[in-house]
């Protein structure tokens, strides 16, 4: 069974970045010739590309999970890892991409447009790239960051100049097959067409596209039948052609009532802000199946009333190809008028990318309450990326992370937020990475416990002079001489005796 799909949820996972390498070059007579660990490769991006040769989203309906290549890991001798290849997913022209919350990301209205929907992870730096004048032989490397994993909604909206709308079995598929090279499925039962069909029509010097939108019924704008799924394919059309069945055998139906029902559904369907509502766009009426005698009589009867409403009416027969030439030229005239008006509309203003302000902090600190006390959460692109690049099994790597965080002022921000030694600090959203914060002592100022307004470092602590040191030395020598004289007097007084009772 053929299934038409015009809305799919894609689960995309960009490639992870490769880890950097820790290596030391070893040569003859130079066993430690310096670090030579290479960098890891970047993960591949996932790119959506609008392709005019792609007409359906069926492939993504069957395979909604897509992932790109991971970056290679770095190696010794300054060999960097391979870059992960980008994965290109081709989508039809007219596809709208939205995030999981329904916010529009991009609208592919032209062919050849590329959009990176998921960015690959960054490759980690090897120890050769981390070497500095102070850290000449790093014993660690940075890890690669994981690629972006998101869910996006892709929705197909046909891009056509004219939309054929009408009740099921009104002859829309037969009409598009008669005026173009399109070959849709045609049968004599309702809802034969289960997917919009596009056809290219040549009328004189004008070439335009026509979309055969599946049949609408009453309540289609509220989700009844298939109409709600396909009304979005009418949004981009510049004009509408109502195909009314003049040979229907269903009781209670006639061209006038069919037109009123379709107009009500078009009026109830919401469009994007700034776009013309569907029921206010240029509209023509084609009274179809006039090859049937009773249908021709009905068409001649309702034509004056339709013309009185302001519509241009054409009596046609898609099967007998009757009246199609006049209809196609009238459609071409409307298309030319629309294109001429579109040419007068000024171009879309150029998007200006402005850099972030110089004084904009690269992170924010949020104080949160917890069961075991306050928690200080650090949020920011840089801190979160640095944490993901750190190998916490390596103490040197952890110290390097602390230096990086301190360099951008995270510790100062924690002090200002009220954190003290031992406070719980979380870097990143959700569970993140949890630390018991121990401030880095950049000076002895943190150890001063003197009263406010006093500083023990300002006490008079002058260096002793040569005279002072000589006096101290002489006093020490006099004390030693006095101690020796005291011992001699005690010996002469007989206070000291050996084991036999004799004096020494």
From TrEMBL:
Enzyme class: hydrolase
GO molecular function: GTP binding; GTPase activity; magnesium ion binding
Binding of GTP, residues: 166-173, 191-195, 212-215, 288-291, 317-319
Keyword Metal-binding on entry: yes
Major localization class: cytoplasm
Subcellular localization, as worded in the UniProt entry: Cytoplasm
Binding residues annotated for Mg(2+), in chain numbering: 173, 193
Domain of life: Bacteria
OCT domain residues: 355-439
Pfam annotation, one family: DUF1967
GO CC annotations on file: cytoplasm
Residue ranges of domain OBG-type G in the record: 160-336
Required cofactor(s): Mg(2+)
Keywords of this entry: Cytoplasm, GTP-binding, Hydrolase, Magnesium, Metal-binding, Nucleotide-binding
CDD domains named in the record: Obg
Keyword flag GTP-binding: yes
Enzyme nomenclature, EC number: 3.6.5.-
Family note: Belongs to the TRAFAC class OBG-HflX-like GTPase superfamily. OBG GTPase family.
Subunit structure: Monomer.
Summary of the function given for this chain in its UniProt record: An essential GTPase which binds GTP, GDP and possibly (p)ppGpp with moderate affinity, with high nucleotide exchange rates and a fairly low GTP hydrolysis rate. Plays a role in control of the cell cycle, stress response, ribosome biogenesis and in those bacteria that undergo differentiation, in morphogenesis control.
HAMAP family named among the record's database cross-references: GTPase_Obg (MF_01454)
PANTHER family hit by this protein: DEVELOPMENTALLY REGULATED GTP-BINDING PROTEIN-RELATED, MITOCHONDRIAL RIBOSOME-ASSOCIATED GTPASE 2
Protein name in UniProt: GTPase Obg
């Amino acid at each position: 069974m053929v299934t038409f799909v015009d809305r799919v949820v894609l689960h995309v996972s960009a490639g992870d970045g490769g880890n950097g390498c820790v290596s030391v070059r070893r040569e003859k007579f130079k066993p430690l010739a310096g670090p030579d660990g290479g960098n890891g490769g970047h993960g591949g991006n996932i790119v959506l590309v609008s392709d005019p040769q792609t007409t359906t989203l069926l492939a993504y309906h069957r395979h909604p999970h897509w992932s790109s290549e991971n970056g290679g890991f770095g190696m010794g001798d300054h060999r960097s890892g391979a870059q992960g290849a980008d994965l290109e997913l081709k989508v039809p022209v007219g596809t709208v991409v939205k995030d999981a919350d329904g916010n529009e990301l991009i609208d592919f209205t032209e062919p050849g447009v590329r959009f990176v929907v998921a960015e690959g992870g960054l490759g980690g730096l090897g120890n050769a790239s981390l070497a500095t004048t102070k850290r000449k032989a790093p014993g660690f490397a940075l890890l690669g960051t994981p690629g972006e994993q998101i869910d996006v909604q892709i929705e197909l909206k046909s891009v056509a100049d004219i939309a054929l709308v009408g009740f099921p079995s009104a002859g829309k598929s037969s009409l598009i097959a008669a005026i173009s090279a399109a070959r849709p499925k045609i049968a004599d039962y309702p809802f034969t067409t289960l997917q919009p069909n596009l056809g290219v029509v040549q009328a004189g010097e004008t070439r335009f596209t026509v979309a055969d939108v599946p049949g609408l019924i009453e309540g289609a704008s509220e989700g009844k039948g298939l109409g709600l799924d396909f009304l979005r394919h009418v949004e981009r059309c510049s004009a509408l052609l109502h195909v009314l069945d003049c040979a229907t055998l269903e009781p209670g139906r006639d061209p006038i009532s069919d037109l009123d029902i379709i107009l009500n559904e078009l009026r109830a369907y919401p469009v994007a802000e700034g776009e013309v509502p569907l029921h206010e766009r240029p509209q023509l009426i084609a009274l179809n199946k006039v090859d049937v005698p009773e249908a021709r009589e009905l068409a001649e009867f309702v034509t004056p009333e339709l013309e009185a409403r302001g519509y241009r009416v054409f009596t046609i027969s898609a099967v007998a190809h009757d009246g199609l030439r006049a209809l196609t030229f009238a459609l071409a005239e409307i298309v030319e008028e629309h294109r001429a008006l579109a040419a007068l509309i000024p171009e879309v203003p150029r998007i200006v990318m402005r850099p972030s302000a110089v004084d904009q902090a690269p992170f924010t600190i949020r104080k949160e309450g917890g069961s075991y006390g306050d928690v200080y959460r650090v949020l920011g692109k840089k801190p979160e990326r640095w944490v993901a690049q750190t190998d916490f099994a390596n103490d040197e790597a952890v110290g390097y992370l602390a230096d990086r965080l301190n360099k951008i002022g995270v510790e100062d921000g924690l002090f200002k937020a009220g954190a003290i030694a031992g406070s719980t600090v979380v870097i990143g959203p959700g569970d993140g990475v949890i630390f018991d914060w121990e401030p880095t002592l950049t000076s002895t100022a943190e150890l001063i416990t003197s009263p406010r307004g006093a500083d023990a470092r300002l006490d008079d602590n002058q260096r002793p002079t040569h005279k002072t040191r000589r006096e101290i030395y002489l006093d020490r020598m006099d004390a030693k001489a006095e101690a020796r004289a005291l011992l001699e007097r005690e010996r002469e007084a007989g206070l000291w005796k050996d084991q036999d009772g004799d004096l020494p």
